[in-house]
Amino acid sequence: MTDIQRDRRFYILLFLLVLVLGSNALLYRSPLTSLVLPADANWVVIGSLIDLAVVAPLLILFLKRRERITVKAFIAWMVSGLVFARFLIPSAYFEPFTYVPLAAIGVEVLILLAELGLVALLIWRLPGIIRWVKSHNESLLFSLPSAVEKRVGNHILLQVLTAEFLMLYYVFASWKKKVPRAEFDFSLHQKSSLIAFYIMLIHAIIIETAAIHWLIHEKSLILSVIMLLLNVYTVIFFIGNIQAIRLNPLFVQDGKIFVSLGLEKRIVIPLEEIKEIKWGREAEEEKINTKETIEFIAKDFETLPPHCIIEFKHPLTASLFLGFKKNYTKTAIRLDEPERFRAFIEDWEKN
User: Fold this and answer.
1) Chain centroid offset of residue 151 CA
2) Contact yes or no for 143/136 (Cβ under 8 A)
3) Contact residues for 162 (Cβ-Cβ < 8 A; gap 6+)
4) 87-108 burial by CB neighbour count: b if 16+ within 10 A, else e?
5) Using CB atoms within 10 A of its CB, is residue 118 exposed (0-12), middle (13-18) or buried (19+)?
6) Which of 81, 94, 80, 84 is nearest to 33 (CA)?
7) Cα angle: 171, vertex 177, 183; to 5 degrees
8) Terminal CA-CA length for the chain
């Protein structure tokens, strides 16, 4: 019933968005324009500007309900709406309002300059961040984002830059690192085909890149270069992801469980935040809701069940691809040595 209500809400919002855009298009770009619009149409134009710069952006943001609604996203859509209005509304009617899109673009430029300032601040504080990382005996995958957040902030641009740096680090600077083999390290991928799966994807992308680039470069050089860059980035990401998976098993330190699956996702679970753990068949039979449960199950050629499902007392924040964050109430984990991990957890519960 809830899913039906959500679908109904989506279609209602989509209908309203089409109605707003369609009515304004008919108002200014139809044979009836000269008959409907009065000579002094300033108030009509103001209404259209409100529709395109406020109403339509809000509808779009609510349609994209899986993404967090932010002031920056609203301003970006507002600027897009005002630019669209400049082309939609005839010059004769829009002339008194020509400054409005320029002012909106000016606001967007100020936001861009502020973000560039954040990048400059990140570079300025980089030595302190490096010292903080070295002083904490944690994996770089976990310690670097924490250091950037503490020293600079948690702006989405900083999260993306940190994620990109981690990718480059694991691709180019991690090959001399040894796989951790401590008492409280638990690997997730060794008994799966995950590494082979990524290697197969890399080979497929390289072959596809060579074939497609050769086919389309004569027809569209720009498109062929764009596809080449995207495929190169994908291969680099997969290589970095393989290294991050190898070098970052699940580990327990300072009363926290650090679990990740390469560069794709990671979460820190304080042991005191564990409400309940389901093991074995009980975990396998539970229906996983991906909106509230983050999965750490290595990809294989067949779908594999989790060995345990950990429920939290309070929602915990996980870091996803490119540093994006989302709250979860459970995690499903599949390990190479589930019995050893279960013995560790049960020992901790006894103590």
Assistant:
1) 22
2) yes
3) 144, 145, 148, 323
4) ebbeeebbeebeebbeebeeee
5) middle
6) 94
7) 125
8) 44
Read off the tokens for 331. Answer: 């995690």
pLDDT of residue 69: 65
Q: Would you say 304 and 297 are in contact if contact means Cβ atoms under 8 Å apart?
A: yes
Contact 302, 310 (CB under 8 A): no
Distances (CA, A) of 66 to 55, 60, 69, 222: 19, 12, 9, 32
In the three-class reduction of DSSP (H, G, I as helix; E, B as strand; rest coil), residue 274 is classed as: strand
325-333 vs 293-296, strand pairing mode: parallel
Alpha-helical (H) ranges within the chain are: 2-28, 33-36, 42-50, 56-63, 71-88, 91-94, 99-124, 126-135, 140-151, 156-172, 194-216, 221-247, 280-285, 338-350
- At 249, list the tokens: 């098993």
Measure the CA–CA gap between 313 and 332, rounded to whole angstroms.
15
Contact 302, 316 (CB under 8 A): no
pLDDT at position 269? 93
| Backbone φ and ψ of 19, nearest 5° | -65, -45
Maximal CA-CA distance, the chain: 82
Separation between Cα atoms, residue 158 and residue 126, nearest integer Å: 12
318 in Cβ contact with 142 (< 8 Å): no
Average pLDDT per 10 consecutive residues for the chain, totaling 351 residues: 60 86 83 69 80 85 68 77 81 74 71 73 81 79 87 81 90 86 84 89 84 72 80 91 93 90 92 90 87 89 87 92 88 92 84 67
Report how far residue 101's alpha carbon sits from residue 248's, in angstroms, rounded to the nearest whole number: 49
